[in-house]
Design a protein that fits this description.
The protein is α+β, with helices and mostly antiparallel strands. Strand 3 and strand 4 form a beta hairpin. The longest helix is centred in the middle third of the chain and has 22 residues. InterPro entries: Acyl_CoA_acyltransferase, FEMABX, PG_Glycine_Bridge_Synth.
Length: about 350
């Protein structure tokens, strides 16, 4: 039975973490999405005889299509409990989502089975049999994760020789890495402005699209570290001779630090500021007890040399992480007419 969760429960984030999902399904991420104007609903699915224990939970973020139509996005979800038959539980969750699509007149629901599923739990064929349609990735399907349980010396030894060299070079050139301080509102605002200027420069140079500037500002404000919150987002910056050369937005949730957004200047590239920025971020994450540093998106292992992410992937893999993959993004169609219209429209945009 699908139930709407209307008030925060102490075990929401625990369920997310214990069952293989991540920060995009956290309670706090939903609050941030609400802060940027999206409608957010959280659901749990309980089955009779389960003593009130959820077999699945998920946060659904609602957004708009043209002509007054809507769709829902379930990032890193739905999440099903790890005990028992996970394939069957995922099927139950998909059936409940399908019913909500029909009831609410949605064009589709976009799902992302979390990385916690292995091939024995759930396969591509299983998803196709459930009526899901493969879609363009919304969240990264492939990533690289550094194991922070290792010692600092082991982490350095695992890196590519060029990455180690560039870290040492940045240290020698006295690049300074720091965290923006949300408690100092004036300085924090200036640091966010610096990040956004660098992001605009990076997007223009590397030809990628960004969110509206207010999106990042709200993220850093709403998700700034707070007592009692499981998800926190931090801004780290690398300065050289009084100029900010690189910045990274990092999300801390559970045992993982995730690199969400990054930017760098075209000036003083010879001092290798981004390399030291990530190394210092790893050391900080390690110091506070985290065990994973997720670079949040690399090109597929078999991708062509001219893949749009090839340069970024070389940079990230240089830090010695291990590749991890999930099942990707899938769509659950609603009305045949509106889903067909949506597919036709996509061809032109």
């Amino acid at each position: 039975m699908l139930k709407l969760v209307e008030s925060e429960s102490s075990d929401w984030n625990r369920f997310v973490l214990e069952n293989g999902s991540g920060f995009l399904q956290s309670w706090e991420w939903g609050e941030f999405q609400e802060a940027v104007g999206r409608r957010v609903f959280r659901y749990r699915i309980d089955l009779p005889g389960d003593n009130g224990q959820s077999v699945a939970r998920f946060t659904a973020i609602y957004d708009s299509f043209p002509f007054g139509r809507r769709y829902s996005y379930i990032p890193m979800g739905p999440i099903v409990s790890i005990d028992g038959d996970r394939r069957n539980k995922f099927g139950v969750a998909v059936s409940a989502i399908r019913e909500s699509i029909t009831r609410e007149g949605l064009v589709l629901a976009r799902l992302e089975p979390p990385a916690g599923f292995n091939r024995e739990d759930l396969s591509r064929d299983d998803l196709l049999q459930l009526g899901l349609v493969p879609a363009r990735a919304r969240s990264p399907q492939h990533t690289s994760v550094v194991d922070l349980i290792k010692s600092s010396d082991e982490l350095l030894a695992d890196m590519k020789q060029k990455t180690r060299y560039n870290i040492r070079l940045a240290e020698k050139r006295e690049v300074n890495v720091r965290q923006a301080d949300p408690s100092d509102l004036r300085a924090f605002t200036k640091d966010i402005d610096r990040f956004q200027q660098l992001l605009a420069e990076t997007a223009g140079r590397d030809r990628f699209h960004t969110h509206e500037s207010d999106y990042y500002r709200r993220m850093l404000q709403v998700l700034a570290p707070k007592d009692g919150h499981d998800l926190s987002v931090r801004l780290m910056l690398a300065d050289f001779e009084g100029q900010t050369l690189a910045a990274a937005v990092l999300a801390q949730f559970g045992d993982t630090m995730t690199y969400l957004h990054g930017a760098s200047s075209s000036q003083h590239r010879e001092v290798m500021a981004p390399y030291l920025l990530h190394w210092q971020a790893m050391l900080w994450a390690k110091e506070v007890g985290l065990s994973r540093y997720d670079f949040w998106g690399v090109a597929p292992e078999d991708s062509a040399a001219d893949h749009s992410w090839s340069g970024l992937t070389r940079f990230k893999l240089g830090f010695g992480g291990q590749r991890e993959s999930n099942l990707g993004t899938w769509e659950l169609p609603g009305s045949k007419f509106w889903y067909g219209a949506y597919k036709i429209t996509k061809r032109f945009f």
